[in-house]
Amino acid sequence: MSIDGAMKAVIPAAGLGTRFLPATKVIPKEMVPILDKPAIQYVVEEAIKEGIEDILIITSRWKHSIVDHFDRSLELEYYLKEKDKDEHFHQVMDIGNMARIHYIRQKVPRGLGDALLHAKDYVGDEPFTVLLPDDIIVSDRPAIGQLMDVHRSTGGPVVALEHVPKDRISRYGVASAKRTGERTHRILDVVEKPPAEEAPSDLALIGRYVLPCEIFEAFEDIEPGYGGEIQLSDAIRYLLDDMDFTGYEFEGKRYDVGNVPGWLEANVEMALHNGQYSDIARDLIVRLHADL
Ligand code: UTP
Predict the structure, then answer these.
(1) Residue 195, class by beta-carbon neighbours within 10 Å (0-12 exposed, 13-18 middle, 19+ buried)?
(2) Could you tell me if the CB of 257 is within 6 A of ligand 1?
(3) Hey, how many other C-beta atoms are within 10 angstroms of the C-beta on 75?
């Protein structure tokens, strides 16, 4: 826990983002905007809404712009103030003051598990939350808060689950699970990116977790798995003999913004529900539809 007793959050953002090349050759995929905000800002805001103010972002050598985005920008602030652009001035100031954000670099992209292992000293011996910036979730109650509620009632780790169609299931960690409630499951096993015909269910692990600190020992003990990388799914599987993991089917709409189709869907749908852009988006869709 952080000094004020709230849970800490870890946001891994050191992946190469190959599914979004060539955009991500130079721009980190976490900085690709959905409407007017970079993806990573959505997950930082999600954590903050749930009272998390202490956040570690796992970054890498070429991702300076993530650090810059959450820093102050004195020149820009000065310019916006001078020009009486108050709304933009406050927007820019607010981003710079969002939370206590810490950074550590993953030197080689050896997988999500390896990235998370870099959070070991920061986290200490308490449960912690993980939010993957690839998964933007639009919901009344932030998805990470829904998982934290489950954690408060069970005392144990929680993973977010979503039913995924068979033709896409092989892109995910997939759970074998026993239903225990309307939205809850007991996780029996987890397989990383199984071929569709070998997937144990259609329940995919989505990028929100409340993890136990024992996960770090698991990362250290397990061998590289799928793709030669240290996988979070394998570490969860490793711990299942010793502790119960709850799977939770969160309420909300999730977009995988780490690839173009998901990013496109997020932009269109979120524009339709955004006060500033909804009319423009609707008019555009009607016009394009008429042309089809
Ligand atoms: P992905 O599986 O989406 O990998 O990572 P990726 O490399 O970023 O993207 P693609 O598949 O090449 O397009 C899931 C999360 O884990 C982080 C990513 O930044 C993302 O938030 N990650 C992945 C790391 O931090 N380090 C890694 O070595 C791998």
Answers:
(1) exposed
(2) no
(3) 8
